[in-house]
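Late entry, manganese (II) ion complex.
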Amino acid sequence: MLFSGILTQLGINQGPVALTGHLHPDYDSAASCLLMRHFLHRLGIDAQICLYGQMDVHGAALLEKYGWNPASLFSPLPEDALLILCDCHTTKLPGRVIACADHHPTMEVPHIPVYQNRPASSAGRVIYEAAVAHGLAPDRQADFLALSSIYMDTLSCSSSKFQERDKPWIREIAARRNFDLPALQREGLCLTDLSQSLEKLCQNGFRDYTFGKYRVASSYLQMEADAPSLVQDLLRRCAAACETQGYDIWIFLCYIPLKKTTDVYRYDRYIKKWTREHHAALLSRGNNVIPTLERSLLE
Ligand SMILES: [Mn+2]
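Prediction complete; structure with ligand written out below:
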C-alpha cells in the first residue's frame, strides 16, 4: 500500500520530504507530483516538489493554462531529503529514496522500501488510485490532474500504454465534474492550432541545422486528420521560405497522432522539388528524421 507505506517510512526516517519526477519531466511527472503533494497534505505531511531538467513545452503550457506555475515545481532539493519518486523509479538526485509510484514496470526492481510500479495509463493514475484505496476522497483538482495526466501520457487514450479499464472511470468523472473531454482530447494529441495564419503554420516548430555545407530548415504540423489542401498551401510557402532564407533543404513533417502516421516532405532548393515519404509510425524529428538526413548529407 503506497500511502500506508509512506507513513511508515516517515515514522522511521527523519528529513524533509521531496517529490520528484524523471529528468526533463513531462506533464505526467508534474501532475503525479502535484497529486502526491495534495494527498500527503491531507495526511498532514508537507512535501516539496523538486523536479529537475527542462520541462517539455507543451506540458508546461497546459499546467499554466489550468492554473499551476510550472517553474514553482523546480524547488532546489533540500539537504537530507526523503525522496518520493513519481513517474520514475530511479533518480539522479541525491537523498534517501523512500517510495516510488511509477507505471514503467521493470525486470530489475530497485531497492526502494515502498515500491509501487505497475502498468497504468499514467503515474498520476497510480497515485490517485492508491489515495482512493487509502480512503482519501479526491477533490475536483485531483480528479482533473489524474484525468489530464492520462490524456497527456497516452496520446489521448490511443497509445498502447492506455488501460481500457480506465474508460468507465474517465466517463464518470468527466460527467460528474463537467470536465471538457474534447478539449483534453485535443491537448493530449498535442495538435497544432490550425486556425493560425499560413505564415505562422509553415514555421510551426521551426528548427534549423547546419550539416557540412548544407543549411537545413524544418517545421511540422500535428493534425487530427489529413488536410491535403492545407498541406499543399504550406508546402508552397515552405518552398518560398527555403529560397528566400537561403536554406538548401526544408523538411516539413505532418504527424497524425491518432493514425500513428508521419509524412516526411523534403524540398531541395537546387532541384526545386518536393519529395514525400509516408511512414506508418510516429517518427521523432530529433531522433529519426534529422539524424537520417544528416547521415545522408555527410556521406
Ligand atoms: Mn508517465
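The chain has two domains: 2-189, 198-298. Will revisit in the morning.
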